[in-house]
């Protein structure tokens, strides 16, 4: 789900080490900065910008539903984040 245009909540994808991260912003304020894949041990950035973007959109979707933005392993598997194929 992509946020509606009248909601000032949006994501930005950025280069993080040898991969990508994302941040969620409300207007000009950074709410969440995620440089690494959540839940995984160690500090591993997303392999592709698309993986980071899908994850950011899921977090925004949860925020808009007034849910906790914390992702679960099953949600990351649904998003087809390759690192979670083993779970």
How many DSSP-defined strands?
A: 3
- Helical proportion, percent range: 25-40%
Rg estimate, integer Å: 12 Å
Strand percentage lies at: 25-35%
Q: How are the strands of the biggest sheet laid out side by side?
A: 1-2-3
Which class do the helix and strand fractions yield?
alpha+beta
Overview of the structural elements:
The chain has 87 residues and is of the alpha+beta class. It has a three-stranded antiparallel beta sheet, with helices on one face. A hairpin with a 2-residue loop joins strand 2 and strand 3. The longest helix is centred in the middle third of the chain and has 16 residues. The model has no long low-confidence stretch (mean pLDDT 89).
Task: Put the structure in a nutshell.
With 87 residues, this protein is of the alpha+beta class. The protein is built from 2 helices and 3 strands, in the order βββαα. Strands 1-2-3 form a 3-stranded antiparallel β-sheet, covered by helices on one side.
